[in-house]
Amino acid sequence: MDAVIRKWGNSPALRLPASAMKEAAFAPEQKVRLTVTRGRIVIEKSGRIEYELDDLVDGINSKNTHAEVSFGKRVGKESL
Predict the structure, then answer these.
(1) Which residues, at least 6 apart from 11, have a Cβ–Cβ distance to it below 8 Å?
(2) Cα–Cα distances in Å, from 12 out to 7, 15, 16, 22?
(3) pLDDT tens across 6-34, in order?
(4) What is the dihedral angle through the alpha carbons of 6, 12, 18, 24, rounded to the nearest 10 degrees?
(5) How far apart are CA 27 and CA 50, in angstroms?
(6) d(CA 51, CA 25)
(7) What is the pTM assigned to this prediction?
(8) 21 phi, psi to nearest 5 deg
(9) Environment class of 36 (CB within 10 Å of its CB; exposed 0-12, middle 13-18, buried 19+)
(10) Which contacts (CB < 8 Å, 24+ apart) does range 18-27 have?
(11) Where do runs of H (alpha helix) occur along the chain?
């Protein structure tokens, strides 16, 4: 299977065919490990990405939050 390395912003990028992703059981946004040896680049699955709730909450600021959204009149026991 052949592919072409192209420029994406200031970096080179390689688009992986869907068939290769499926055969390797990779998914979009999956964390991978790159190993470079003697002119070869090997892509392997990496460990699961772990998020810390405190780090995520610390990232909340006025620039990445939105205003309150109305979903209509209250129904049931939403307001106690």
Answers:
(1) none
(2) 4, 10, 13, 23
(3) 999 999 999 999 999 999 999 998 889 99
(4) 140
(5) 16
(6) 22
(7) 0.50
(8) -60, -45
(9) exposed
(10) none
(11) 18-24, 53-58
